[in-house]
Amino acid sequence: MSASQFPGDAPADGGARGDGAAAHDGRLRPLIGAATGLLIGTGVAIGSGIFRNPQLVAQQVQTPALMLAAWLFGGLFFTLAGLLTAELATRYPRTGGEYIFLRQVYGPFVAFFFGWGYTVFVVGGGVATMAVAFGDFTRQLLQWTGGPAWHSGAIGATAVAVIAGVNLLGLRAGAGTQNLLTLLKVGALLTIVVVAAIKGRPVGWFDSPPPAPIATQPAEAGGLLLWLGLFGAAMMPVMWCYEGTTDSVKMTEEIRDPRRAMPIALVGAGLLVTCVYLLLNWAFLRVLTPAEMAASKVVPAEVFTRWAGPAGEKLALLLAMGVVLGGISSAIVSCVRVTYALARDGMAFSFLGRMSVDQAPVGALLVGVGFAIVLALSGAYRDVLTVYTMSTGLLFGLVNLSLFIIRLREWWRGVEATPIACFRCPAGMAVSLFLAGTQFAIAAGVAWGDVTDYGGVLTKRTLLTFLAITALYLVWPKPRHENRT
Question: For residue 161, which of 14, 154, 210, 383 sits 20 to 30 Å off, Cα-Cα?
Fold first, then answer.
């Protein structure tokens, strides 16, 4: 074994092998294909956000053209992220995804920082955000509107526990369940588009008045800066809706022929989700004005109510619950693989790195779900979303910057071409800097908003957790092989 490899590192050719038992060197069986990878990314992304966040976008920018521009920008961003991640995945085709990339590029500390931060904030916070939304929709459907916010978390936590139970049966059971839920929810959402195309009214793309604060500003620099600020604020809920399109990368080692499959799965998921979101928001605007969207609690429910009265609202809430359930299922299938990879490298408790014979990372799954349940019971939707967006901006900014560093090292060493077994991201260095800069800016913007509006309570909690992870690294026994490639 090379000194630059951790135990069980896969070779650059993707480590293709048969569908028999797991290899003695610790590598996993490739049990799924490109289509499942694409559906995992689609399923994670299309969750609670498309029901909870269109109104948040409309509250910031009330011109239909700008609203769709925000959704289009988010889609282009994550499609570019798919191209970048496809190159990284084929360079380092191991389960664990971004954790593996950071370990190879920055070394063990950044990888440790990402792996534990991801386990707490992304596995825990991401699933918790969807769980709270599921609980909110359930309470609204059953008209349990009274009581404390943690009631929604308790309902969502129950749903998370059920989905986790299915995933404990193994990769094929978990992936099959999420594939079915993803196909059903995409089909159901597209029915909204079809009905709106038939029954809706034309959209006046530039007819709506600007938000009140801008109407009082001069048309020069002050007004333009305010427009840009509001557009930037609209991007936080948009970006959350796209998060997850690249999550199949965490399962690269378990996907057949990753050189061919990963670009299809990663870029395809970004393009599919972009099309779905643009069509859905166009459908919403054919039924509701931007002001009506901004005042709505759940935009699709309001749309269905216009069409079918109270029965339509209940149907929309049932659809929302199904969509969110599918998002939880997809996230649990893929995201806990980061925690598993962290433990497999000796950077977390050993029981987190155990994989069942049917390829269910039992320890990592239970711990990740445990974090999600705790966060779901302790926070409101907006609070969990703020912490999630702030932390992922920092963590994934580092991931996106890694391709720039890799290409720069290759240029410095005189390496003229990407290894033949790897997909090559077009304009990779420019894409890397753009994606990293955007992620860092989003994290800074969310933190600044929390400081100015709420005294920085959530920012302080996030920073304290990151400091605790840093302290944990200082005392953690280090694995023997820590060199970078």
Answer: 383
The length of the chain is: 485
Domains contained in the chain, CATH given:
34-380 (1.20.1740.10)
Classify residue 292 by its DSSP letter. H
Closest CA to 329 of 241, 240, 247: 247
Give residue-wise pLDDT tens across range 135-189.
Answer: 988 998 888 877 777 788 899 999 999 999 999 999 989 899 989 999 999 998 9
Q: What is the pTM of this model?
A: 0.83
Pair of tokens at residue 328: 């939880």
Contact 375, 186 (CB under 8 A): no
What is the C-alpha separation between 319 and 189, in angstroms, rounded? 8
**3-class state of residue 32 by DSSP:** strand
Contact 267, 278 (CB under 8 A): no
CB 247 within 8 A of CB 40: yes
SS3 of residue 73 by DSSP: helix
CA separation for the pair 324, 134 (Å, rounded): 6
